[in-house]
Amino acid sequence: MKICIVGGVAGGASAATRLRRLDEKAEIILFEKGEHISYANCGLPYYLGGTIRHRDSLIVTKPELLCKRFRVDVRIRNEVLSINRQEKKIVVRDLTSGTDYEETYDKLILSPGASPKIPPLPGMDSDGVFTLRNVTDTYRIDDYLLENKPAAAVVVGGGFIGVEMAENLVDRGLSVTLVEYADQVIASLDPEMANILHRHLSEHGVNLMLGTGITGISHGSHGLRAGLTSGEEVPAGLILLCMGVAPDSRLAKDAGLDLGLNGSIAVNEYYETSDPDIYAVGDAISVTHLVGRTETLVPLAGPANKQGRAAAENALKGRKLKRSPVQGSSVLKVFDLTAASTGLNEKQLRQMDLPYKKTYVHPQSHASYYPGASPISMKMLFGDDGHILGAQAVGAEGVEKRIDVLAAVIRLGGTVYDLEQLELCYAPPYSSAKDPVNMLGYTASNILNGDMPVFYAEEVSSLDAQTATLLDVSTTDEILMGTIPGFQNIPLDTLRENLNRLDPGKPVYVTCRVGLRGYLATRMLLLNGFRAFNLSGGYRTYSLTG
Ligand code: FAD
């Protein structure tokens, strides 16, 4: 069997090594048009910021290793130009010699990735304007920084790469403006969760311009100027375009293969394209969302690697491994914070018209009496039957571990009731006897079984003090640090003796700092005959909205 692979990084390199582990005799040829295979795309921003110091560290596997250990015929700087499906041949250009040649295949696996989106606006090809996709781009940006020593940069786009690059350019000593067309960064988070990042980015000196797009790039007397939809022009020595990626399906399209969502390469449930001898994986294909069951694009390394492995088994052995749905689990470092999410967020659920409930908690990352604990802000979305639809978390410590647990529970079809029962490892430096994930389970099941009727921060503005009692049960000292306008203060520990001050005919809307004492007050009120509701996530969530 002779298998050719197009693309030598996440999906392609995974496919190549899996093929060899399954078959000692197969002829495996890996074509990569760039200089490098199997490089650390995800590490590129950290090289530019100086955390990863050596260029060599970015290359995970050198071609020689793949040749020696896996007997893969690796051809770097070889671009596959076209596919002749009738004759099962590809035309390849050796970019070093400039010559074209043909190669036959029995099976072909495409993992060409995605290309950065560049809008058709003036000045996008100016000197000093970059996109970041591969090691060559990284070296180019690094060399430019070393030679030109720009004092300021504009990063356009507040997705994962844009935010990571904003941080890393700050680390590199530049003053950074981050321009994002939407009113929030990191679209996988809901706005109130992203607000934590907005504040943190600003605290670290990033000039964050939300709701602002780029209109073009011009040359001023002191370098580049980024024209913005606000009418402003921001001067910069370097402009980085991080405006998302589009599936690289040119080769497939020219070969007459079917295309799918947003020009991605269409594949069936076994990663076969419309030609059964050609498979496709990675950023170039669309995936089915595990929770929403809709087709979507999830350009992440984890899915690409797993798909490459599965497609290799199907192509070589005819194993019919099924295309795995994707849930978009992702994590991001933003200076001293970590943000992570899995599944669908509230914006997506609303767009898809899927019914949901939600809960917010802000527990400590580990036992509060052990030094160094810090709060994690968490949000979980779930259905009426308790199935978990998605979760998001932002904090300084222990964030990704909680989202990983939730990702696993979602993958296994678990419910909020399962979260209550999860037995997670505990010692004071790491967690609490009731882990934050358990807390999400408790609050969600309390909502579902009616033990804790809730209201949400976005409903606060419609509450009327004439028809409802608005109550903050924080301590008097805490109130001095902030409370919701219009809420009267009766600290929780004095509430029982003050119940006679509350009108039993009015519903009581309760808040506290993070929702825990509000829950206790709500229970007390309910058990004393009041209609009561607790603000999910308390004042902390309220302060993140709007
Ligand atoms: P790629 O890994 O992009 O590989 C495709 C390769 O195919 C390219 O090297 C390309 O040169 C080659 N190619 C294309 N056409 C041809 C042709 N005709 N002939 C020969 N070769 C060809 N994901 C995460 O999950 N976590 C992260 O933290 C993360 N950080 C990232 C940071 C950056 C800066 C970037 C750019 C991406 C990041 N990603 C991250 C995304 C992740 O890297 C991709 O999802 C993943 O690499 C996709 O794998 P792939 O095999 O589909 O494509």
UniProtKB/TrEMBL annotation:
The alphabetized UniProt keywords are: FAD, Flavoprotein, Oxidoreductase, Redox-active center
- Keyword Oxidoreductase assigned to the entry: answer is yes
Q: Which cofactor does it need?
A: FAD
Keyword Lyase assigned: no
Domain of life, source organism: Bacteria
Which residues does the UniProt record annotate as the domain Rhodanese? 464-546
The family note in this entry says:
Belongs to the class-III pyridine nucleotide-disulfide oxidoreductase family.
Indicate what this protein is called per its UniProt record.
DsrE/DsrF/DrsH-like family protein
Portion of the full-length sequence here: 1 to 546 of 829
